[in-house]
Amino acid sequence: MSAVPASTAAAMNLSSSSPPSPSFDAASWSQNHLARVEGALSQWVGDSAPAGLGDAMRYAVLDGGKRLRPLLVLAAYEAACSSAGAGAAAFDDAALRAACAVELIHAYSLVHDDMPCMDNDILRRGKPTVHVRFGEAQALLAGDALQAFAFELLTPDDSTTPAATQAALCRLLARAAGSAGMAGGQAIDLASVGIALTEDQLRHMHRLKTGALLQGSVLMGAVCGHAAQPAYKALSDYGAAMGLAFQVVDDILDVVADSATLGKTAGKDAAADKPTYVSLLGLERAQAYAQELLHEAQAALTRSGLPDTRALAALADMVVRRSH
Amino acid sequence: MSAVPASTAAAMNLSSSSPPSPSFDAASWSQNHLARVEGALSQWVGDSAPAGLGDAMRYAVLDGGKRLRPLLVLAAYEAACSSAGAGAAAFDDAALRAACAVELIHAYSLVHDDMPCMDNDILRRGKPTVHVRFGEAQALLAGDALQAFAFELLTPDDSTTPAATQAALCRLLARAAGSAGMAGGQAIDLASVGIALTEDQLRHMHRLKTGALLQGSVLMGAVCGHAAQPAYKALSDYGAAMGLAFQVVDDILDVVADSATLGKTAGKDAAADKPTYVSLLGLERAQAYAQELLHEAQAALTRSGLPDTRALAALADMVVRRSH
Q: Domain range spanning residue A57?
């Protein structure tokens, strides 16, 4: 998989921010941006990986998932660009690459999570998991290669993206994915089965396990859009609240939804005796907590002072109201 | 694992290049530089990773291995700095970080390679493998976290290393580790068991599986030392020849050495019916080929025009003459 020409992303016509329009159609916004992400992922992932590895990588990434993380990157990027005086168009390529990179990290984590030595899950997004389809060894390698490719996507050598932006994106992604982020949260999760966590401990686990990459997505978009302080700080707060809300809702859905709606095995946290917000707070208080976090996220957007944060607001809303 | 202060590396006193001295003591050079790498790895790896993850990461990385890749980074860095007019001292921190980053990638690949779904090996560097010691799930996570940490090490936010260098290092490492490099080579390896490869196919597999990261190590050192063309190209040729020589010798040692000397299971390639240079060329021609590659590597160093490439020459020599 060699370097992807910067011109590819330009040809995909990722729009620079347009002036706020009186009405905001969240569904159209999502559909429009999803199409760009899907197109870029389909073009970039696994195109020349040898010996079946590319097939496993593409299977893991394409045609599935809500793409919440890429949408957060693009929404944060556009929000930052909506600031007066921000010159955004030149960095569209960086934003699209960052959007794809966070999805690659998310996808690799699912591949490894589903393996027999972890959650041993056979169903993901309504399809057989990667190790079921391609074997464990290929699944392990595909996950490893997807993580490396995320960093390759962020550092094109023929791009107009400034090196400082490339380096900052790698830094944010590495921290969000590593032992102080996603991987660390998974280690806590492993060690927590059958253990009664306090609410603080549960929150810490989720801030790392899922929150770090969701918040990282927002921050990577903010970096691509050259958000200045204090907007950057406010977007960080938005990312933290929204990331935690995502996990609280995940725990709720694990209890109230069925497998067909979820596209994965429902009730597995309870079956695995894993601590969740529902087991800790009960269903009603967990639902109230999700609402509270949504309000926190919205307050942070107001505090950012950015003229147009409607896509970010819509995504936070979607996170809390989703049914799967 | 938060950002590592740039000053840490400075405090470790990684020397900038000194003028070529009349005699070169390769053993002292290696010992001196190994101590710096070991010190940095010990300080940086897994220091604050939660829930036992840090222990598994440190076990995978510390107290073992030849550290060939880090030494290649530092030797290439110093060779590049030996060029007239190169101002090197300011980038010592980048070179030490790059040296550690390539070792983290190497270490993670061993952890994942040893897992039951891959080579199912229980002995590595004379010790139980990570999954034997910590369980498969923790081994999987430790490998994942080590890969992420490699990129985190390359992108410190309080460093004097220029962003362009940081981005270039991430680019080189991601390509060397990913589907066009190490992970791709492993996929070919997986698909090649019991298959008669041609010499070209075997060479392609090894250029990816082990060659890419060895060559990448040389190139990362060259980038830290700001090697100009044509020295960069010559160092790349050196890295390619030396990387392939490494694998040819590995294949030879798998046949002629015993497990105690290797610190890992000997004869396992033959037992697994994997194609090797020895099975393809026979022992004698494989040994001659290793010598030929050593000469190629030495010729490339001469061609580089760099005043002092003695450490790189000594490392190539060591690669071919090693007994384990």
A: 24-321
